[in-house]
Amino acid sequence: MSDRPLARSASSSPAPRSEAAPSEALHRLDAATMAARVAKRELTAAALVEAALARIEEVNPAVNAVVRRMDDEARRAAELADRAAADGQPLGALHGVPVTVKINIDQRGHPTDNGTALYQDLVAAADNPVVANLRAAGAIVVGRTNAPVYSMRWFTDNTLHGATYNPWHREYTVGGSSGGAAASVSSGMVPIAHGNDIGGSVRYPAFCNGLVGLRPSYGRVPSFNGTAKGAGSVASQLMAVQGPIARTVRDVELAFAAMAVPHIDDPRTGTMPAPLQPAPRRAAVLARSTWPDCHPTAARAVEQAAQALAAAGWDVVEAVPPGLDELHRMWAAITIPDLMSALEPVLPAAGDPNIVTAVAYWRQALGEFTAADGLAAVARRHGLLRQWQRFLAGWPVIVMPTSLQPPFARLADVESPAMAAQVMRAQAPLLAISVLGLPALSVPTGLAGVDTVHGRIDLPTGVQLVAAPGREDLCLAAGFVVEAAMPRLCPIDPR
User: Fold this and answer.
1) Catalytic (active-site) positions
2) C or N terminus of the chain, fewer CB within 10 Å?
């Protein structure tokens, strides 16, 4: 919706020392700068929210990232935020910063529709803890972002809200399932977006959009949907996490700190003790031979990240952690008899042919697994996690591809079973990390020319930086180094 600005109440408090200059492009500021300037009273939250709403008005029609606007609500929140700043109240780390929230997470007063008309009237009575944590840090939600039905595709479209397009090139995937979240950041609507990740749904959209995306460790960020019916799947309880997408590593660090506050409604979360000492600056790099089918652009991105770390004084070696290919299969063994088997019977009622086709092709690509297979995989997972922790004790950061292939053409997962199999194979690095519940940071490494049916086009490339459980700080430390050596890609005007 598009609402008139609310009348602001008069205040005897002094006005900010300086407001944004009319020519200043506030949508280009990062969240850390926004919050700092609000705290110094150089900018108002109202100005930042108006800039975000104006940018949504300008570019969202081209990308369809934000599928539910909340102009009035955001303006009211900004007014309260400015009043708190004027009164000298303690301000959170994201005070006044506009953000977006994905449509599969409860937000008070809005439907958790999961991309289907089945749930378009399923209005949440309370915020999911991750939304409450963002608000407690001072962030202001300006819109809800698109996702595929049940957030179970690498592509973002549904019959309820339509398709979300990649600002870099409309004919290539924006990523999934947090594709709307990523597009809202890459096109400059907001500096931070909420996403979630069970197989790669934060890291892959970040990769496709030239952004930074963090998959936190299992249990670091609380989540609970009061609108949910029934028990959560085993796969979700083991692997599903909430995380931020942003344009810079610093903004991801700020957003993660805001999100990672334990909540009583999520028994997985607890306060993680701070590391006693920093780990040595050592990184293992996966060589090209690890995945022979790795696209040259993906392999080159890993080489670029390794070179950046080495130039900064890190000890960098080629090494392969244990059971990499087994972990890819393990993800399927756990999810198919559990999560996928529960989804398949309800998919036809969602009224979205693409999700039905995509899941059917997934099953063909990944193979059939029984409940016994799933239980055996969960048992085997424990031993592999132990082996990885030993590996990470020697090499605290692993540099590996985010995806083995450049972003695929839109709707490639429903083109044919063979193409769907290629899509799934490309996500092997994402799925391996999800199974273990490790933290991983997707970091852009620039643009690469890719030969396509549309000619040679430039698409974003990137890597993921992996660390031991609870060591998001190491992912971020390596991310700062890689980021400093690479061009900043976003925000971008949709093409």
Assistant:
1) 102, 177, 201
2) N
